Sequence to fold (247 residues):
Amino acid sequence: MHNTFIATTFDWDHRNPKDWQRFLNRVLRKFRIKAKLTPPQPGMANVEIRMNLFHLLEQTVVHNVPGDVVELGCNAGESTIVMRIILNTLASGKQLHAYDSFEGLPKLQETDHRDEVYSEGDMAVDDHVLIKNFDSLGLKLPHIHKGWFEDTIPEELPEQICFALIDCDLYEGTKHVLPHVYERMPAGAIGMIAVYYDEKLLPRKGLEGGYRSPGVKRAVDEFFADKPETVGMLYANENACGYFRKL
Ligand SMILES: C[S@@+](CC[C@H](N)C(=O)[O-])C[C@H]1O[C@@H](n2cnc3c(N)ncnc32)[C@H](O)[C@@H]1O
Fold:
């Protein structure tokens, strides 16, 4: 199947400078300053992250890994839409489940607080925005599980999971959902972990905020310390993500 829809859905195409940026770029060139302005990453992630999502989810469907598809932290549904289009195109009967508080991040516990990356309520978006985004593209809605992960997980998880996008941003949320998702995965299932960033593998000076969510890496590394799987890091320009394949 084609994955060009990733570039045309929302505003995820190559980030061409806007008119005002082109103007300033000409000024910079005139003064021989080697710098170029381009638009920032649109929405919750960049196009490279969506491409990684495409390849990981597609694998589990094409290889007939049993189970449904879940997203822990769906926000306005941008990544959920990518997943829905992949499932539709492959005529897969797998169910798509999307979980979020729709109130943003919970009150931060000590360890997340110390990281100084996020605050309570960050990324709050109403579930109606997700519904509107799906409707505007004529896509079937996922099963929406509104509430704190601590209340919905594991009770509202499907019995078997072939693919999980874990996008919780915080140590506590990741630590809570990971064991429940993992135990429902058959061999071959894939877990993609958003903002899993290892600065030893890819040193990036000045990488800030949600591009480096240290709590996510801590929770994931702690969990896999005594597991047979390894977590790989996938390149995604200024973003990054991790993934594991259940053995
Ligand atoms: C980075 S956003 C998800 C982005 C989305 N996956 C995408 O790529 O477009 C993280 C989401 O996780 C949700 N979240 C984080 N911790 C949560 C918790 N403990 N319970 C419920 N939702 C939570 C937030 O509300 C937020 O919408």
Remarks:
- Strands lie at 68-72, 96-100, 143-146, 161-166, 190-194, 232-236, 239-245.
- The radius of gyration is 18 Å.
- The CA atoms of residues 74 and 98 lie 6 Å apart.
